[in-house]
Amino acid sequence: MSRITMREAISQALWEEMERDPAVFIMGEEVGVWGGSYAVTKGFYDHFGGDRVRDTPIAEAGIVGAAIGAALVGQRPVAELMTINFAFVAMDHIVNEAAKLHYMFAGQFKLPLVIRTVGGGGRQLGATHSQTPDAIFAHFPGLKVVAPSTPEDAKGLLKSAIRSDDPILFIEHATMYQVRGDVADGENLIPIGKSKIQRPGKDVTIVTYSKGIEISMKAADELAKDGVEAEIVDLRTLRPLDMEPVFESFKKTNRAVVVEEGWKSFGVGSEIASRIYEECFDYVDAPIKRVAQDEVPLPYNRTLEQAALPQADDVIAAVKEVL
Amino acid sequence: MNKKEHLELYHQMVLIRRVEERGAELYQQGKIGGFMHLYIGQEAVSTGLIAARQSNDRVITAYRDHGVAINCGIPVNEVVAELMGKATGVSHGKGGSMHMADPKKNFWGGHAIVGAHLPIATGMALGDKYGNQNNVTICMFGDGATNIGFFHEALNMSKVWDLPVLWVCENNKYGMGTAVNRASAVSSIAMKARGYDMPNECVEGMDVMKVYEAAQKAIETVRSGKGPFLLEIQTYRFRGHSMGDPERYRKQEEVKKWEESDPIGVYRNYLIENKIASARTLDELDEQSMDEVNKAVEFAEASPEPTMEDLYKDVYVE
Q1: φ and ψ of A46, to 5 deg
Q2: Cβ within 8 Å of residue A79, ≥6 positions away
Q3: Helix H or strand E encompassing A63
Q4: Residue B142: is its pLDDT beyond 90?
Q5: Could you read off the pLDDT of A298-307 as tens digits, one per residue?
Q6: How far B101 CA sits from the closest chain A CA (Å)?
Q7: Cα separation of A28 and A62, whole Å?
Q8: CA gyration radius for chain A?
Q9: pLDDT digit string (tens) for A188-225?
């Protein structure tokens, strides 16, 4: 067991998989000589060389398209998009090609492809660089969407993603690279598509993922002081969505708050709440609350930005409403 | 090229023509749905091009793909069955006219978002170069695709990394109904390759032999490790862009003028004049092709629909 940061966990996963399988290579903007814009691939270029840590032009459609092509012919590319905001430029290749080719050609094509990217606000990058559009990507059958909240999950899920024959969008959070956590030594693959209880409790179910875990954990610590035991379910994967742990928890607590960093409208919270109502209607003791980002493009000003983003206090207030 | 090979090319071209003509009939009868884009008039392009490839060379194209599929060796039964959405179709009825593929034949589709398959072709060539394969990716697209960003990103990357890819623009003069000079700042597509310092050539595409010779040279240049090459092939589609095209953008005289250089007629004359084949032999091939298409339609009509189980199959591998 070692205590490492999220950045180190992701870096280790990539390094170990590249050492294990020569078909695995990285491509993206500034992944090589620069060492990665979030320093995840620092040192990779010197060790693996430019063919396996391939710097690309600033051309996201080209990057994802080329990664798809390389995957089709049997390689296992890990394409990096510097931020998820740039994924919109590659939207066609993510949702219209990667998510479709296996099905549309009746299983003849496989796409062992990982698109690593960075989402989330809170770094004063302004409206175009601070989004959390995870739900948009989770909308498409054929694509898998993973967004871990702990170093252990990040490492285990990324290793599984690289070994998977399906196209996977792997979303890291821009403000969580320094988050530390215990990671088991040696091979520890975590299956994609499994939710996890990150904190047990009996009074209320908080369903969340990624950055939402960080603020929900803080909220749960505060709530515990008032004797409220919140159970926190980490979705970890948005598609395929594993609702069983959520239903199990809800049937015990009968109350739920869903926390996400993206906008509330048509978001993750709406999906989770609907599914709970559909499957657990007889267990509902209070309306399910959604905590999410205010419905504005994120501003640059730090005070305004933080006001728009969901905070632990918002989670606490929502929990108090459902109790 | 020996006599047998010549006759095979002629056969493929006639077979494509007959499949497309029957396809149009079946479409009008409501037996084929969706969008369907016919290859009539352009048969020499794909036939000459693919005749020049080795079996390990990959082919990827846009949505006007029936002819390319046949040239790549996909049985006509599977092509017609796919058009009719049957389980025996090459994409098991889930792709349709625009999405045929068979990687075992090194045919990688059949892609219907204009230009989107060009970066994928770059990646296939990248993957092969990374894996030390000595093959070429042949990527076909229309003139319309050269105005979208994907084209430029894909060409640029292929040159930056010196990838083994042959870019083949089938310039049929219109992107849907918009003439090349109304949509592209330069009417010469080959000229666009110069911006990427890429060798290029423009050839006449109604003569299968000219296409074949140009393709052979271009493919060998690419295979020799000199990086990508762009081949512009001048051609013309005799039918509308798709089945629902009122053709307000061109005059019938223009179509008639091009029909005088029908690629099948041009090749037929060439074979007879050079005493490679007699008119009778070619007539027999015409009949044989008609027979094959009739049998393919019978096969497709008798084939089962995909099942409800197929509806949910192959969303994911795992």
Answers
A1: -65, -35
A2: A26, A27, A28, A63, A64, A66, A67, A113, A114, A115, A116
A3: helix A60-72
A4: yes
A5: 999 999 999 9
A6: 7
A7: 10
A8: 19
A9: 999 999 999 999 999 999 999 999 999 999 999 999 99
**A77 Cβ neighbours under 8 A, 6+ residues apart:** A24, A25, A26, A27, A66, A67, A70, A71, A113, A114, B123, B127
User: Token pair of B280, please?
Assistant: 């009778």
Do the chains contact at B157 and A102, CB–CB below 8 Å? Answer: no
Q: What is the 3-state secondary structure (H, E, C) of A205-243?
A: EEEECCHHHHHHHHHHHHHHHCCCCEEEEECCEEECCCC
The H or E element containing residue A169 is strand A168-173
Give chain A's domains with CATH numbers: 2-183 (3.40.50.970), 196-322 (3.40.50.920)
Indicate yes or no: CB of A141 within 8 angstroms of CB of B123.
Answer: no
Q: Using CB atoms, which residue from B58, B94, B118 is nearest to A106? A: B94
CA angle B188, B194, B197 (to 5 degrees): 160
pLDDT digits (tens, 9 = 90+) for A255-264: 999 999 999 9
Contact B158, B227 (CB under 8 A): yes
Average pLDDT over residues A1-25: 98
Confidence of residue A185 (pLDDT cuts 50, 70, 90): confident
Which chain B residues touch A51 with a CB distance below 8 Å? 130
Helix pair B279-302, B76-83: axis angle to 10 deg: 50
ipTM: 0.97
pLDDT at A186 over 90: no
Closest in B103, B121, B156 to A57, CB measured: B156
CA distance A132 to B278: 69
CATH code given to domain B3-304: 3.40.50.970
Count of A-B CB contacts under 8 Å: 141
**Phi/psi-derived region of residue A74, left when phi > 0, alpha when psi is between -120 and 50, beta in every other case:** left
Domain boundaries of chain B, sorted by first residue: 3-304
From A208, A197, A322, A193, select the one nearest A262 (Cα to Cα): A208
